[in-house]
Each structure stands twice: as C-alpha cells, then as structure tokens.
Amino acid sequence: MNVEDLLNNYSSLKGGRGTWESHWEDIAERILPRQTGFLGDSTAGEKKTQRIFDSRPMIALDRFANVMDSMMTPRQSKWHELSTNDNVLNKDASVKAWFYEANQILYDMRYSPKANFAGQNTERWISMGAFGTGCLFIDFMPGVGLRYRNVHLKDLYFGENHQGIIDVVYRSINFNARQAAQRFGEKNLPEEIKKALEDSKKSEQMFEFVHIVMPREDYDPNRADARGKPWASIYVAVKGKEMVQEGGYTSFPYSISRYVTAPGEIYGRGPAMTALPDIKMLNEMAKTDIRAAHRLVSPALLVNDEGILGGGAMKIDMRPDAINYGGIDKNGRQMVQPLNTGARVDISEAKMEQRRTSIDDAFLVTLFQLLVETPRMTATEALIRSQEKGMLLTPTMGRQQSEALGPQIERELDLLMFHNVLPPMPAMLAEAGGSYEIAYTSPMSRMQRAEELVGVQRTMELLTPFANIDPTVLDIIEPTRLARLTAEVSGVPNPVMRTEEELETLRQQRAEQEQQQQAIDAAQPLAGAMKDVAQAQSISRG
Predict the structure, then answer these.
(1) pLDDT at residue 385 is higher than 90
(2) Is 415 left (phi over 0), alpha (psi -120 to 50) or beta?
(3) Each residue of 334-363: b (16+ CB within 10 Å) or e?
(4) What is the C-alpha separation between 353 and 376, in angstroms, rounded?
C-alpha cells in the first residue's frame, strides 16, 4: 500500500475533524476534565477543573456509564448466549454442549484480571456518554489471553463503508526513539529516528506513528502472510513517511460505540451534547450563586464620608471581639451599615435544581431512579415499570447491541478460535459452516421482553372471570411453555431448568406414582371388606 496515499488520507480525516474537536474539548472541560487535550497536548499534572462549578454533570456521566454497564454488560451475570440459526442443530445435545462451553470459556477469558475488560469497558461507556463515541481495541496475547484497551477518541479517525459501518480506523500513537525501537525494531525505523536513538539528548524525543486498520484490497485467502488476512494492519512513521510494520487481522479489532448519529456524520453525539446548554448554564448559575452567598456572608459596608474610626483613616476591624471606636454617633446610631442587595439565594437554588434534573434526564439517571424511589411496588407494578423503561431504552440499547457488542463478540470468538482456545467443533456444526447467532440475555434485554409477561398477566386477569363459567377458556395457554417463558424473561440460567427429556422422564415417573397410588387407594376398601368378612366368620365360629 502506498504510504504517501495513506498519510494523505490521514491528513484529510484529521483536517475534517476540527469542529468536532472544539466541541469535544468544550464538553471535556465541563464534564470529563481528565480527557481534555483535543485542541493540543496538555501538560502532565496540570489543573483541569477551572471551568467546573457544579459536580452534578460529572456524577450524571458516571451514573450513565454504570447504567450502561449494569444493564448491558453486567459483570455478575452472563449477558449473552450462543446458538445456531438452525433449529435442527439447536436440538442436538453435542451442539448445545459445545456452544455452552464456548460461551463459558469466552466469559472466563473476558473477565480474567489480565484481560482488564471491566475497567476498559466502563471507560468506553464514559467516552460514549461524554463525546458520543467510545472505542474498545481487542487483541490476544499468547500466555495472557484476550486483552482490551479503551482508546482515547482524540487519537482516532474513522472512515465508513457504503452501509454506514465504520471499517477504517487511523490511530495516532506517540513513541520516543527508544520505545519505537522496542516496538518495531531499530532496523525498521526511518533514519531520523535512528539518529535520535543514538543521541542521548534526543532519545526521549517523541515521534508520531499512525496505526491504520482497513479492509485489504489485495486479500488472498490462500496466502499465509499478511495478505492472507482480510484486514490490513499498517504502522507508518509520520516523520520520514515510512512504513515500519505491516500485518493483518482475521477480524476487525475495534468495537466502536456510537450513541446516536446525525445524517452525514461519522462520529456519534452523546447525552453530554444534548445537555451541554444546561451544563453551561448550571456552571454560570453556580458561579453567580457563590458570589451571592459570599455577599450575604461578607457584605460590602456603607460608611459615613465625614470620617470616623480614628479621624479620616477608615480602618474597620472585622475580626471577632474587635473594638472599633467611632462606629456609632452620640445618639447610638451605627455609622457603618452592610449593603443589603436583597439577593434570594433560595430562588437561585431552585433554578439550579431544574437544570440538574434536565441533565439527569439526558443521562437516563431519572429513568432508573424510579424503582429506587418507589421500593414498595407490587410485582405487577414493577413489571409494568420495567416494560415502560424497556420501551424507552430499546432504540438506544439496540444500537449498542448491533454496532458495538455484536462485533466485539465476533472478534473475541475469532481470536479464541484462531488461537485454538475453544474445544473442537462437533461434526454436525462444522459441516454446517460453524454459523452461530448471539442471543442477548442482559437485564436490558429482559426489560425489553417484559411486555411479553405483561401481556400474559393481563390475559390471565381478563380470562379468570370467564374461567369461572367455562374452565376450558384457559386451555389456550400451555403451562410448560408459560413457565419457560417466565423463567427466560426473568433471567433464570438455562442449567437450572430441566430439559424436555428430563421433563418427560419426570412426568412418566409422576404418572407411574399416581397409578400406584390409585391402585393402593382402590385396594384399601377391598382389604377392609375382607377384614370385616374374616372377623364375621370368626365370630360365627365362636
């Protein structure tokens, strides 16, 4: 691939993002100060909170990330399952066992401490909430396993394909000469970087490299080198304009989350962009409120211009227990009066709370406070509330499942398969091409399906009066299927539930026990009659 063309594309993507960077910096300064630097490199350790006067937006952003994490990728439970899209294969015990084991291995690798998925995934949601876009890089290291890294948006530049899917990523990376030699090998570096490496005064000088991931146009599946992989991985040194490393990926290594997108835009727009006017207003109101409170506590003083307190030298001692001579006239009236502006701090606080509520709404905080604020709800009320929240969140969460989590899971499985971590695939599944589908079982997915249980519950409530007249009206509902649906939507793990074969065996045993009990019940009257006859015969003989 032509390095000159790659760098020209990089410059074009970089130049077309100036408006975004100004917007992102504006947001970062007020809601996520640790990620400022879109408009230039920041100094390590510098203060970054000068423009923040109210912490509610930062708290709302953290809660938004927690909501996304707990509702879509909860650490404490499995939030997806694997199966085939072939109903015949799904009924095969070996296929079901393989998918269950593969899913378990994936979870074990993903949540291994070495993988660091939980922490990096939270950072991804935070970036999406603040800037509208979050990006997770997924790789595999032999001996370690899956690795995850959230990449700062300021270092990323995207390109879309004709379907609006991001398939080109340019990532800016800075290395000093010593780090570059460690990463790419000294012999692969441009001459200028080699010279800096030999000069002790320049060995710590930073150089920019660009990592480019894009579909490979010269892909050949029959080759064993980099061109035998569908995704190109190219590292280019900006200084010297030389390619320092070329490789490839068997699957797209980035999982990119976009909250919403506007027509013609590649980067997403997040809740912070929606709430930015309220965030700015809240900060201004907080500043005004601080000044007003300061004036109330320590007001300006009004003094007589004829000279008091020691004859013309107006020195007022404001310390506790201080004595100011000349502060009253001969009639006992104060010669010094505080300036009362009539400021109403209580009104300011009420207005600020309105802004805070709007910010919480934008970050979905108030939506999830509903169950917390009303804990004494019946099961029916809780189910209806879950249904309502699921309806409101379906567009937002559905996009994350299709655009971010789906590609992430595909990338993880591809890496595990490529490195022979997964067990051998059953013959039936291998012959079918190993195709699979992802079934999401997160709390968000169950919340979206709460409508099914609400429908069942309402149907039962409506049919109950008719069942008192004709019990057959309830025959339309199959109890076992209803129980399975309830368990599935409520999040009961599959291993806990009996299989169809186990249910059939249990029902046969139960039927046999009932037959035995019926035989016993039928034999008891006969035994009693025989006993009575025997007693009567004994009496007659006596």
Answers:
(1) no
(2) alpha
(3) eebeeeeeebeeeebeeebeebbebbbbbb
(4) 26
Over residues 146-182, the pLDDT tens digits come to 999 999 999 999 999 998 899 999 999 999 999 999 9
Instruction: For 61-90, write each residue's pLDDT tens digit.
Output: 999 999 889 888 988 888 998 988 888 888
Rounded Cα distance between 54 and 289, Å, is 11
Q: Which domain holds residue 315?
A: 301-338
> Whole-angstrom Cα distance, residue 423 to residue 438?
19
Distance CA 121, CA 263 (A): 27
Calpha distance 337→299 (Å, rounded): 10
**Minimal CA–CA distance to 134: which of 72, 183, 91, 178?**
72
Q: Is residue 526 part of a domain?
A: yes
CA-CA distance, 439 to 165, in Å (whole number)? 22
Report the C-alpha gap between 122 and 133 in whole angstroms.
13
130: DSSP letter: H
Instruction: Specify the number of domains making up the chain.
Output: 2
Q: How far apart are CA 181 and CA 207, in angstroms?
A: 12
Q: Which of 320, 338, 356 is the last residue of a domain?
A: 338
Q: Single out the residue in 338, 362, 396 at which a domain terminates.
A: 338
Q: Considering the chain, what is the average pLDDT of its residues?
A: 84
Rg (CA), the chain: 35
Contact 356, 366 (CB under 8 A): no
Please state the rounded mean pLDDT for residues 481-501: 73
Is residue 366 situated within a structural domain?
no
Question: Is the CA virtual torsion 304, 310, 315, 319 positive or negative?
Answer: negative
C-alpha span between 24 and 199 (Å, rounded): 38
Query: What residues contact residue 196 under an 8 Å CB cut-off, 6+ apart?
Result: 177, 202, 203, 205, 207
Domain membership flag for residue 318 = yes
Q: What percentage of the chain reaches a pLDDT higher than 70?
A: 86
Spatial neighbors of 347 by CB under 8 A, at least 6 apart, are none
Cα-to-chain-centroid distance, residue 472:
47
Give the residue among 3, 2, 65 at the shortest CA–CA distance from 32.
65
- Asked whether residue 87 is assigned to any structural domain, the reply reads no
**357-376 residue pLDDT tens:** 999 989 988 877 655 555 56
* 158 contacts: CB under 8 Å, gap ≥ 6: 13, 166, 168, 169, 170, 256, 266, 267
